[in-house]
Amino acid sequence: MLKMMMRNIAASSSSYCTSRRWRGMPCLHSNSTVVVFANDYFAFLHSQPSKPIKSTRTQLEQPSPKITTVEDAFNVFDRMLQMRPPPSVVRFNQILGQVAKLKHYSAVISLYNQMGVSRIGHDVYTLTILINCYCHLNQMGFSLSVLGKFFKLGLEPDVFTFTTLINGFLLKNRVAEAAGIFNKMIAGGNCQPDVVTYGTLVKGFCMKGNNSAAIQLLRKMEEGACMPDLVVYNTIIDSLCKDAQVDDALNLFSEMICKGIAPNVITYNSLIHGVCKLGEWKEATRLLNEMVSKNIFPDVCTFNVFVDTLCKEGMVVEAEGVVEMMIERDIEPDMVTYNSLMDGFCLRGEMDKAQKVFELMHSKGLMNVVSYSTLINGYCKHKKIDEARMLFLDMSHKGLVPNTITYNTLLDGFCKVGRIDDAQKLFSEMQAFGQLPDAQTYCILLDGLCKNRLLSRALQLFGEMEAKKLDIGIVIYNILIEGLFITGKNESARDLFCGLSSKGLQPNVRTYTIMINGLCIAGLTSEAEKLLVEMDEKGCSKDDCTYNTIIRGLINNNEISKATVLIQQMVEKGFSADASTMELIVNLLSKDEVDPALLLLIKGPL
DNA sequence: ATAGGGTTAG
């Protein structure tokens, strides 16, 4: 089996380079890095003992039957309500708590209402569970009215209650209110925040992308307020990893260990995810080795990170190998696993295989909104819009509610095949069904309108965005500027660009590239070159797209020597010519208009 | 005895 997998890897490795991360590096090299990793990884896994199988004794020792479904809960609850005298509120709380853990928050609320009808009393625990459910259902208003109930009943909210509320506000991005409760706790004296309260706030900072504030709070905790625990460290380590600050994460990781706090599987999963995203396979393997040497065993999440990373690098065959290994090791692949695999096939355009995974999931009863969105995305990206639409209709029949991401995916699909009217219909439809458009929705639609040269409709949409007081960022202006160039409104494009700073916005690398492209097409290469200088001055570094754009622009305007200088610069910086730039260069070479050494430079040593 | 914070996929 392993040998078979190795053969698969060897056979498939040379052609499987779709990595964006290693763009600019010779393809073969990047692949061999991955293969080295994959070999190490597979060999490594086989050399490790399996995770100890849970003894059946502990299962027998469980005092009460565990509730695994909402139906169970309703049945047990019914029986309890009929008992005379009724069981204590503690028993009811246990059921509510378990259903809440299953994330069936509205079920908890209806169970709670049944308690009320049967005149079962409730206590601080009950109400705290209730608040938590309303928080997760985005109904902070009800959460607060439950808080009012405390006072009416003469109950004292405790640190659990306040922490739950703080978490609720943070989930809704209402940081000020969350901080308000926290400060009142500190000032109040009788209910001080504990490590969970601090941990919740740390998470809030991390969600806002403010890692340094999170670390500051950590330091404050260390000073004595209350000692940080593993969860607090995990929160920050994960956030650092998500922001590609893996070195900082690893430093914090060592610091944590020095303080005597042992990492767990979650810590390692975050770190492995972080290094995988950077393409650092060796480091991922090292961490995997390290965790097992500490008797921390990879779980479904760990494997999913590897499956997903391999899929995103185009190595679906290898990812399938990892899935087989999971099964071998008694770790059941879950929705996340299959969704990643499906996405991997979609990325490679192997839609039949993606469809097969989808059907497999269906037969296992493992389908969620993400599964549909992923496959819809696959079909859209390959312009099979009708298949995508069918799936979209099918998911509603299965009782799955399309979310904003699903709508965005399909919207983009319609736009990319030029079906703008369908897109705008869907845009109204999503709002009618209560799915709020987000920033990305507007970007997709605006871009669709611009790319299809429907500038007046684009400007109308932009007007709506302004009227709704939406936060209009640089990405939206990039789309508009490009749209103005596409429709030949060069002057307006330049005006919009020049007016950015007055709106408090900084052009980014994409903005400059769009400007450079537009100016070159208009024949204004010297102005485009001025922007290149401006980028340097403003510390906005050029990417491969910028280089390809200016080089193409110069060649098309017959400024070959200037183009040559930039080609050299591009290669020195580790970027490479894309297909269309390459075509232009090859064309020049055939006309003897450029130094043949240049081709070698671009293509690399033959 | 029962309640609150941390990991993976579109």
TrEMBL record:
InterPro entries: PPR-containing_protein (IPR050667), PPR_rpt (IPR002885), TPR-like_helical_dom_sf (IPR011990)
PROSITE patterns reported in the protein's UniProt record: PPR
PPR repeat copies, ranges: 123-157, 158-192, 194-228, 229-263, 264-298, 299-333, 334-364, 368-402, 403-437, 438-472, 473-507, 508-542, 543-577
Any Pfam family: PPR
Keywords: Repeat
Family stated for the protein in its record: Belongs to the PPR family. P subfamily.
Protein name: LOW QUALITY PROTEIN: putative pentatricopeptide repeat-containing protein At1g12700, mitochondrial
Source taxonomy: Eukaryota, Viridiplantae, Streptophyta, Embryophyta, Tracheophyta
